[in-house]
TrEMBL record:
The organism of origin for this protein: Cryptosporangium phraense
Name recorded for this polypeptide: SDR family oxidoreductase
SUPFAM superfamilies the record matches: NAD(P)-binding Rossmann-fold domains
Superkingdom of this protein's organism: Bacteria
InterPro entries, per database record: Epimerase_deHydtase, NAD(P)-bd_dom_sf, NAD(P)-dependent_oxidoreduct
Classification via Pfam families: Epimerase
One cellular-component annotation, GO: cytoplasm
Lineage of producing organism: Bacteria, Bacillati, Actinomycetota, Actinomycetes, Cryptosporangiales
A molecular function (GO) term: aldehyde dehydrogenase (NAD+) activity
Domain NAD-dependent epimerase/dehydratase: 3-216
């Protein structure tokens, strides 16, 4: 099928584009810059120029495709205001893409985060959070999934806090960036809180499986590692960078500080059993050994 992809040059998106092409699909990807266009063309994708804010371009991309994978998200989330603006842009884009597919029975796969459930690993049956600093993302996903009743095969792949590749990406990547900036491989609290993780190449396979076969209105978890202690993650970062490993204030991590401090393991048992997804790439702690 021909698949319209937004966010096709990011950590997840570049892996998804490669996975789709290797599986025999055609890809038309959104590109907002010359460098993104060149990267996508080099990968073998066709390009539609525009940004996530160009709603008419998004409609055109969806109109020419057999399916859509929506991955794009704003790059500026260093402050609460910037994060809110990025979420608002994503919300409008997903609504536009979903509306363009009404009555077509074509698939759209969106991306969100695994939920937090006190005292246990979250599962695919748990609802997305709809409050807090990223609650609007949950509400947007719920609205998209509700289009299943209007002839849209809408599904969502929930990503863990860290999507990694060659030691980069996700919350672990932000922790590494903070370590380089502050000179301390820090973690909030006592560091026993757990973060789930997945290799980007494994996540890409799940996006393809959801696109090809997941029923409308369903939610899936791209979780390979159910939960690594943040202190263990920081320990690898500190060792690789030659920095001390210490507890630091939540504020060190900006608007993500309260989320960094949460214990948030997650399970993908249903996803593996139903879609036949099986992660095969290195775990987070192994992959972090690539930090230089």
């Amino acid at each position: 099928m021909t698949v319209f992809v937004t966010g096709g040059t990011g950590t997840i998106g570049s892996a998804v584009v490669a996975e789709l092409l290797s599986a025999g699909h055609s890809v038309v990807a959104l590109a907002r810059s010359d460098s993104s266009e060149q990267a996508l063309k080099s990968a073998g994708a066709e390009v539609l120029r525009g940004s996530l804010a160009d709603l008419d371009v998004l409609r055109a991309g969806a109109a020419q495709a057999d399916g859509v994978i929506s991955l794009a998200f704003g790059r500026d989330y260093g402050t609460p205001e910037a994060l809110a603006a990025s979420i608002a842009e994503e919300t409008a884009a997903m609504a536009t893409l979903g509306e363009a597919l009404i009555g077509s029975d074509r698939p759209i796969v969106s991306v969100s985060g695994t939920p937090w459930v006190p005292g246990r690993a979250s599962t695919e049956a748990d609802p997305a959070p709809t409050d807090g600093p990223v609650g609007q993302r949950g509400r947007s996903i719920n609205a998209l999934l509700a289009l299943a009743s209007q002839g849209v095969r809408a599904t969502a792949v929930r990503m863990p806090r860290t999507v990694h590749n060659q030691g980069r990406g996700g919350f672990a990547g932000l922790l590494t960036e903070a370590a380089r900036r502050t000179g301390i491989a820090g973690y909030p609290g006592d560091g026993t809180q757990r973060w789930p993780a997945v290799h980007a190449l494994d996540a890409a396979v799940l996006f393809r499986l959801a696109l090809e076969s997941a029923p409308a209105g369903t939610v899936w978890h791209a979780v390979a590692d159910e939960g690594d202690a943040v202190r263990d993650i920081a320990s690898v970062v500190g060792r690789r960078l030659g920095l001390p490993v210490e507890s630091v204030p939540e504020e060190t991590f900006g608007p993500f500080g309260p989320i960094f401090a949460m214990d948030q393991p997650s399970s993908s048992v249903l996803t593996r059993e139903t879609l036949g997804w099986q992660p095969t790439h290195p775990s987070l702690l192994t992959d972090l050994e690539n930090i230089e």
